[in-house]
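Researcher: I need the complex structure. Ligand is phosphoenolpyruvate. Inputs:
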Amino acid sequence: MLIAGNWKMHLTLDAATALAAAVADAVAPLHAHEAGVAVALCAPFPFLHAVAQAVAGSGVTVGAQDVSAHAEGAYTGETSAAMLVSVGCTYAIVGHSERRQYHGESDTLVADKAAAALANGLTPIVCVGETLDERRAEQVEAVVGRQLDAAARRLGDDLARAVIAYEPVWAIGTGETATPEQAQAVHAFLRYRLAEALGTGAADAVPLLYGGSMKPINAAELLAQPDVDGGLVGGASLDASSFAALIAAAVATSA
Ligand code: PEP
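Model: Output:
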């Protein structure tokens, strides 16, 4: 299991390092690592180095919220995977719906970012998910299948080294959560598509996270679904006690 917090564009340096230290302290007594639950904090770029230092030795890992598709060069404003590794990152979120929506990121660009991450020792958390209109039009499998297939085509067998996050766009930051049954149905479909690309054994080993208004109150039920292997958590990750409660639910579920 993996529980990854996505802090989005929140906090300042002092608040970010204080939150990271508070998460590390709150998570310590849960023995998450021993229970097979990995924890990651995906912080804004300017805070990554300090956050990595604040959680050093705690078992909590650090991720970025995006990464360049390019390895190096004249790409003003971009941040490469190697740079992220050098400041202590383990993960990079790619293809979050906010980047697809507000920055016009295509399936191809997202797949290229995932490839750049893997080529430089970073694990991409590849986000897929449908909008409310697409769900109403019964396009869920078509949309998430298309998004996953783009990554599968680009990554080949390396897809087995990625994390996939199913984030229904209508559930992100809205307080509206997919029911455990809705989440499981899409996760089972993604697992099936992964198995087509990688074979069953490798597909079973790819962590499939759910994201979309996951909170301590609904986490246990979502995480208990057979194909839900963790969570990508926005709002509830900005409060150390809420985030720790979510991790406690993951530890209890994986016990
Ligand atoms: C997210 O941004 O990835 C997310 C799931 O946000 P929230 O938990 O706030 O819905």
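Model: Summary of the prediction. Residues 6, 167, 172-173, 211-214, 232-236 surround phosphoenolpyruvate (CB under 6 Å).
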